[in-house]
Automatic annotation (TrEMBL):
EC number annotated for this UniProt entry: 2.7.13.3
Gene Ontology molecular function, alphabetical: phosphorelay sensor kinase activity
Statement: the UniProt record of this protein carries the keyword Coiled coil: yes
This protein's name: histidine kinase
Family matches, as PROSITE patterns: HIS_KIN
Domain Histidine kinase: 67-283
Keyword annotations of the record: Coiled coil, Kinase, Phosphoprotein, Transferase, Two-component regulatory system
InterPro entries: HATPase_C_sf (IPR036890), HATPase_dom (IPR003594), His_kinase_dom (IPR005467), HisK_dim/P_dom (IPR003661), HisK_dim/P_sf (IPR036097), Sensor_HK_Regulatory (IPR050736), Sig_transdc_His_kin-like_C (IPR004358)
Catalytic activity from the UniProt record: ATP + protein L-histidine = ADP + protein N-phospho-L-histidine
Coiled-coil annotated spans: 30-67
C-alpha cells in the first residue's frame, strides 16, 4: 500500500488512516514476536537449569549408592573375616573368642540398622508408611531419646542439657518421633568435640505450634549445604560435615516423618555457634 502512493498525487485521509493502521499492526506483531522471544529464552533457561539439577541429582544418587555399597560391604567383610578365624582356630582363648564374637554382633547390628534405614527411607518417600498416631507426652518422648543416647554422650564426655518443659500432649507416632529425636541427638554427639561438647534442647510454645530447638557447639553446617542437607542423596563436599551413612539417611528419614505429622524440620541459618535444628509441630 505504501509503495503504491505516488508523491505528486495528494493522499486522501482514508489512505493515510489505512497506512497508519498497517504500521500499527506491524508494531503490534513485532512486540508480540519480541515477547515470544523473551518467553522462549526464559523457558530455555528454566529447562537448562532443570537439566543441570537433574544431572546433579543423578551424580548425588551415584555417590549415594557407592557409599551404601561400601557401607554394606564393610561390616559384611568384617563378619566373614571374624567367622573364618573362629572356624579355623578351635584352641582360641575364651577372652579372644569373646572379642571376635562381640565384633560379629556389633557389625551385624550396624548392617541391620543400615538396611532398616534404606527400607524406611524408601517407604516414607513413597508414602507407604502408615503412622500409628496416638496421644503422647512430648516431654516423655524427649527424655526417652536422651536416655537412649546417654551412653554415647557419656563415652565422649558430651553434656546434654534439656530445659524443663511443661507436659505437652500431641498426637503422633511415638516410635517415629523418638527416631527423629534420637537421630538429631546422635548427630550432635558425632560432630561435637570430646569433653567440651554441649548439646541443648529447648522448647517454645506458640498459640498454634510447638517449636523444639536442638543445638550443639560443634563445627556447624556450611551455608551452601543447608538447602540440601535433608535430601536423601546429598553428601556434603565439606569433609568436616560429611554425613556418615546412618546420619545422612537419618536426616532424610526425619524430614519425611515430621512432614507426615504435618510439621516441619529445618536448619537455623542464623545460628553461628554450631548447628541448630528446629522441629515444628502443629498443636
Amino acid at each position: 500500500m505504501i509503495s503504491s502512493v505516488v508523491k505528486e498525487q495528494p493522499v486522501s485521509l482514508p489512505e493515510v488512516l489505512k497506512i497508519l493502521e498497517e504500521n500499527k499492526e506491524t508494531i503490534t506483531i513485532n512486540k508480540q514476536l519480541q515477547q515470544q522471544s523473551h518467553d522462549l529464552k526464559r523457558l530455555s533457561d528454566r529447562l537448562k537449569n532443570a537439566n543441570q539439577a537433574l544431572v546433579e541429582k543423578d551424580r548425588q544418587k551415584d555417590e549415594f549408592l557407592d557409599t551404601v555399597a561400601h557401607e554394606l560391604k564393610t561390616p559384611t567383610a568384617s563378619i566373614r573375616a571374624a567367622s573364618e578365624i573362629l572356624f579355623d582356630d578351635d584352641d582360641m582363648p575364651v577372652e579372644l573368642k569373646k572379642k571376635f564374637l562381640d565384633n560379629i554382633v556389633n557389625d551385624s547390628d550396624r548392617l541391620a540398622a543400615l538396611i532398616t534405614n534404606i527400607l524406611d527411607l524408601e517407604k516414607l518417600s513413597n508414602g507407604r508408611e502408615v503412622m500409628d498416631k496416638k496421644q503422647h507426652s512430648l516431654k516423655d518422648t524427649l527424655h526417652k531419646a536422651v536416655d537412649g543416647v546417654y551412653q554415647l554422650a557419656l563415652k565422649k564426655q558430651v553434656k546434654i542439657d534439656v530445659n524443663e518443659i511443661e507436659s505437652i500432649n500431641l498426637y503422633y507416632d511415638e516410635d517415629r518421633i523418638l527416631q527423629v529425636f534420637t537421630n538429631l541427638l546422635s548427630n550432635s554427639i558425632k560432630f561435637v568435640s570430646s569433653k567440651d561438647g554441649v548439646i541443648k534442647v529447648k522448647t517454645q510454645l506458640t498459640d498454634t505450634t510447638v517449636l523444639m530447638f536442638f543445638e550443639d557447639n560443634g563445627k556447624g553446617i556450611p551455608q551452601e549445604d543447608m538447602e540440601f542437607i535433608f535430601d536423601k542423596f546429598y553428601q556434603s563436599n565439606n569433609q568436616n560435615v560429611k554425613k556418615p551413612m546412618g546420619s545422612g539417611m537419618g536426616l532424610a528419614i526425619s524430614r519425611h516423618i515430621i512432614e507426615s505429622h504435618h510439621g516441619s524440620i529445618r536448619v537455623d541459618p542464623n545460628f553461628i555457634d554450631g548447628a541448630r535444628f528446629i522441629v515444628e509441630f502443629k498443636k
